[in-house]
Amino acid sequence: MTAHPRNDRMLTVEALREEISTGNIDTVMLAFTDMQGRLQGKFIHAQFFVDSVLGHGTEGCNYLLTVDVDMNTLDGYALTSWESGYGDMEFLLDLDTIRRVENLPGTVMIQCDLALMDGTPVSVSPRSILKAQISKAADLGYIALAGTELEFVLFQTSFEDAWNQDYRNLVPANQYNVDYSILGSALVEPTLREIRRVMYAAGLDVESAKGECNLGQHEIAFKYADVLTTADNHAVYKTMAKDIVRARGGSITFMAKPNQREGNSCHIHMSLRGTDGELVFWDKESGTRTALYDHFIAGVLATMKDFTLFYAPNINSYKRFALGSFAPTAIAWGNDNRTCAVRLVGHGSGARMENRLPGGDVNPYLAVAAMLAGGLYGIENKLELEPELLGNAYRSDAPLVPSTMQEARDALAASSTARAALGDDVVDHYVHYADLEIAAYNAAVTDWELRRGFERL
In the chain, what is the straight-line distance between the N-terminal and C-terminal CA atoms, in Å? Predict the structure, then answer.
């Protein structure tokens, strides 16, 4: 059984066996990413893993891809139901992803694909959706590279106290705007340093950390990689960061809009290369973008409204889109223009497009898959790139990003482009997810309603 670790900080199967035999590793975590972008799975005793799981895999209930954030089993999904008995699905080990989890002693993690019990891949699994687009790009002669810039807000208040306080009066880790502030970052550097250290040991290539605008808001950046590695790393980072901060007595949120101040973004940078690594987005001789790059950008823009549900997957996501907020409201592109949904940066081998629509709550597999699918659609159809938007996109007449989850849901449901690119089963699954989220939100009585109406109405 051979693995090809992504770098020398990750383990081969042989190295894992050795670490287990010497007692250095006693727990193997098997994890897949669910619809909400969370890691789900099992902690397995290491020797049992070697004896019974490594060669055969393991199983878990198939309802894990049909639940809401509260883990409620919900009706209406084609994948599974009470009528079909909520059976199992297989966890298929990706042995290229054996990584150390230093915040949990003696533990390694292996990420998994999902299959039905007959071996058929679960097509609506986020990792399967992304892998389908990777395969399509390869058929066209390309590999896709991406990086995700994930912002978060740190609090001194613990997760448990935040829950018990109904998330009111939380104490931010910084009391003022610390955007690029060395002093502000130094205040929380013990936490940021521990996150960077653990992530590096887990096989992520760490670049830097910096302060952001909201109180206690920061960003840790990681080097770009192929899109599957980037999505895998994103999911690992988000989970480990929460555990690291929890262990230090604080809390961290990646919500798109956790309060009335600046939201958490997750800008996604993407480019294509030829399968042998050659540049396809940049013409070295002329020093300009290639026609293929323009087609790719045009495709991302043309599908942005239809794919918004994958970039903004929660009710809260849409509260981030506001005028003058550095979160986009206009579907337009510009060179180094942060008011546009698509910002072009770099040149030569660094030429890439930045999708500024996604927030910190995004499922990386779904967002990257949607962006790649849109770009490939533009290439296949040789879409012409519209003129660059100059100036303030917030005050332009460019088409607008969907402003509610209902609008995004309707655009996806009606999109023949999305159905052709992703498949009816994928579109129907995530449209139903949106229907259930919208229904749950519409049924909720909020603090806003109580404050306005309890006494005065």
Answer: 68
Same-domain status, 182 and 163: yes
CA distances from 195 to 111, 187, 297, 352, 360 (A): 20, 15, 34, 27, 17
Beta bridge partners of 345: 352
**Contact predicate 177/220, CB 8 Å:** no
Tell me the three state secondary structure of residue 151.
strand
Range of the domain at 396: 133-448
Residues in a beta bridge with 265 = 359
Spatial CA neighbour of 359 closest among 341, 375, 343: 341
Site of tokens 């929460």: 242
Token pair 């080097």 in the structure block, residue: 223
96 and 168 in a common domain: no
Q: Minimal CA–CA distance to 305: which of 341, 334, 269, 353?
A: 341
In a domain, 1, yes or no: no
Structure token digits, residue 166: 């109904």
Q: Where do the H-state alpha helices sit in 22-125?
A: 46-48
| Distance between CA atoms of residues 295 and 292, nearest Å | 5
- Which CATH number do you get for residue 87? 3.10.20.70
Enclosing H/E stretch for 88: strand 88-93
Number of domains in the chain: 2
Same domain, 391 and 259: yes
pLDDT, one tens digit per residue, over 43-88 is 999 999 999 999 988 999 999 999 999 999 999 999 988 888 889 9
Which residues on neighbouring strands pair with residue 108, listed in sequence order?
Answer: 28, 100
- Of 122, 148, 168, the last residue of a domain is 122
Buried b / exposed e along 95-104 (16+ C-beta atoms within 10 A): bbbbbbbbbb
* 2 band by pLDDT with thresholds 50, 70 and 90: low
How many Å is the Cα radius of gyration of the chain? 22
The angle at the Cα of 34, spanning 28 to 35, to the nearest 5 degrees, equals 170
